[in-house]
Design goal:
By secondary structure, the protein is α/β, with parallel strands linked by helices. It is built from six helices and ten strands. The chain is globular, with a radius of gyration of 18 Å. The two termini are 31 Å apart. Keywords: ATP-binding, Cell membrane, Membrane, Nucleotide-binding, Transport.
């Protein structure tokens, strides 16, 4: 049976305790299938970052259930001990800023995670060059990070997120600093990568330029999600 890449049920997150407690997630449900790119949209303070951090096993939910690829990761508590390995091997992160390592060249920025996962340096660099080629920055593979434009750096950060072939990528405002053309190019690449690697991609965004491109959108308001079919406009 085909398993969802991400499935969460009634996920809750409370920050703090007592009178000052904040219920950031009040019972969130979400399902994302392999190869899908879904949008996560909502006003400031609605819980988007909190949900993304829970999905990325960066913070611990307070209650609920979460499975990745059919494996139960959280069921009222963490169900696995080694969250660091889970994050390294099964979840790719793309942020608003690329956060590349300035003293490594472009190839090694992408090859680093596979190397840390135990893949030989030669194999990791080969994989990095293939990904950079797929993302149309292959010609910058030997360059220093500082020599790249903002859009090129963001594409390198997407290559890095894909470098361990994770089943899930979490992207937090990945197009915010980019102009319209480059933002749509990043979305096109995310869609291609989702299809090619059957990766499930969740994109948190306020970006009006890219919202019409999603086939499915989760709106989050006051700590709860509401699903909507998107326009899925071709880019
Ligand atoms: N570490 C924290 N401690 C206490 N409250 C927090 C913490 N982080 C977030 N919150 C609160 O949880 C709620 C949801 O915050 P979150 O950052 O998830 O929202 P968001 O939708 O990502 O907002 P934005 O679009 O402004 O980044 C807000 O009320 C916020 O003040």
């Amino acid at each position: 049976m085909r398993e969802p890449a991400i499935h969460i049920e009634n996920l809750k997150k409370r920050y703090g305790e007592g009178d000052t407690a904040v219920d950031a997630l009040k019972g969130v449900d979400m399902t994302v299938w392999p190869g899908e790119v879904v949008g996560l949209v909502g006003p400031s303070g609605s819980g988007k970052s909190t949900l993304l951090k829970c999905l990325g096993a960066v913070i611990e939910p307070t209650a609920g259930r979460m499975t990745l690829g059919g494996h139960t990761i959280f069921d009222e508590k963490w169900m696995i001990n080694d969250l660091r390995t889970l994050r390294r091997d099964r979840i790719g992160f793309v942020f608003q800023a690329p956060y590349l390592i300035p003293f490594l060249d472009v190839t090694d920025n992408v090859a680093l995670l596979p190397m840390l996962a135990g893949i030989s340096n030669a194999e990791a660099r080969k994989r990095a060059r293939e990904l950079l080629g797929a993302l149309d920055v292959g010609h910058r593979a030997m360059a220093a990070v500082s020599q790249l434009s903002g859009g090129e750096q963001q594409r390198v950060s997407i290559a890095r997120a894909l470098s361990n072939h994770p089943p899930v990528i979490l992207a937090d405002e990945p197009t915010a600093p980019l102009d319209s053309e480059r933002a749509l190019s990043v979305v096109r690449i995310l869609n291609q990568m989702a299809e090619q690697f059957q990766t499930a991609i969740v994109v948190v965004t306020h970006d009006e330029k890219i919202i019409p491109t999603f086939k499915r959108i989760y709106h989050i308001r006051d700590g709860r999600t509401y699903e909507e079919a998107g326009e899925g406009r071709h880019v």
